[in-house]
Each structure stands twice: as C-alpha cells, then as structure tokens.
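for the recovery benchmark. tokens below, seq after
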C-alpha cells in the first residue's frame, strides 16, 4: 500500500490498520514524493489525501485512474466529506472519511475493491476494534502547521493550513479546535476579517503544544 498523506496523526492510524491487517505500507507526504515512489514501486492499493502541501490529491487520483497498468485500488481520503463526489468523479474507487480507525471498516473498504483473483477466499473473522494513534503524532502535526505558517498570511498558505488543521482536529476528535477552525474557514469563504478567528485557533494550538507529553 502507498499512502499519500501529509498528516502524521492520520498516517499513524493507517499504519496501525495496515499492521493489524498484514499489509505493507509506504508513505509519501507530498505529490512530489508520491511521484518518486511510483517510479520504482507499483502498489496494490493507493490511498490519497485530498489536500496536500504541493497540490490537490484529486490530480493524482485522476492521473493514476487513467494510467496503464492501473493501480488495482485507488481510495481517496479527507476530513471533508464533501470531497467524496469530486474524488469518485476523478476516478477513485472509494472514499475513506476521516477519522479512519476501525479495522473492520478499513479492511472492507480495501478488500471489497480488490480484483476477485487476489481477494482472500472463504470466510474470515471480522475484527471490530479501533486503533489508537499515538497522540505525539497529533502534537507533531500542530507544531508542523505552526512552522508552515510562521509569518505567512497569503491566502494559499492560510487555505492549506485551515484544511490541514480541520482534518487533523477531526481525526484527533478535538472538537474545540475543530470548531475554531470551522469558524476561521467560514470567515475565509465569506471574505470576512480573520484576525479574531485566527487568534483563537493559534491560542488553542499553543495551549495543546504547552501541555506536558506522556512518557
């Protein structure tokens, strides 16, 4: 499996799901990195996040869905469920809504779309448990977005940061931060001043980064 995902927290969840499913996984965090992997590696399953630092995952889905030979299973993923229609239209075989932590749901999403000649035969136990990604990866994501923003306030950087934080907060089930990010996103879309909403998001991130880490 090749996972194209910029969030360490979301990647850790997929890594654990693959580990418990007996699947091997490689990760790329940008479209450029994914292209390097694909030059030497032909995965059986490709999972692509829709929002990446250097472009849209939709472009990669559209490109690889037309390639020959085609990756057998191409799945799109996002914290924004509204992306599902666009992903399927681009050629994805399915859509994984974040957070994806349930082992049975993950295995069904992958196995049901594999060609029949490579699917497991016969009955198999259905694992119902969820995985629990390391919260250190969540902190890493928050620190990463602080580093990316720095003093940048250009619209493209803010749009990416908002989408990234929304997906990460949803995956981590951090409702307070998710609500603040949603308010910021709404201000951006409406062309309203973002200063107050951005300050609230920044304050919540600082609060989470200041908490002691469990050892």
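predicted aa per position
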């Amino acid at each position: 499996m090749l996972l194209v995902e910029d969030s360490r927290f979301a990647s850790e969840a997929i890594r654990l799901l693959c580990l418990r499913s007996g699947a091997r996984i490689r990760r790329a965090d940008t479209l450029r990195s994914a292209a390097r992997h694909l030059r030497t590696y032909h995965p059986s399953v490709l999972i692509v996040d829709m929002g990446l630092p250097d472009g849209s995952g939709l472009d990669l889905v559209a490109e690889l869905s037309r390639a020959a030979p085609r990756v057998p299973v191409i799945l799109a993923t996002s914290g924004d469920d509204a992306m599902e229609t666009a992903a399927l239209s681009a050629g994805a075989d399915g859509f994984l809504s974040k957070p994806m932590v349930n082992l049975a749901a993950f295995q069904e999403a992958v196995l049901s779309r594999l060609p029949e000649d490579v699917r497991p035969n016969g009955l198999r136990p259905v694992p119902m448990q969820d995985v629990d990604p390391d919260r250190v990866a969540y902190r890493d994501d928050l620190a990463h977005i602080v580093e990316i923003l720095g003093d940048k306030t250009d619209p493209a950087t803010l749009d990416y940061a908002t989408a990234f934080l929304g997906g990460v907060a949803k995956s981590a089930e951090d409702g307070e931060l998710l609500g603040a990010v949603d308010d910021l996103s709404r201000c951006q879309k409406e062309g309203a001043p973002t200063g107050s909403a951005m300050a609230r998001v920044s304050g919540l991130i600082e609060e989470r980064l200041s908490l002691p880490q469990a050892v």
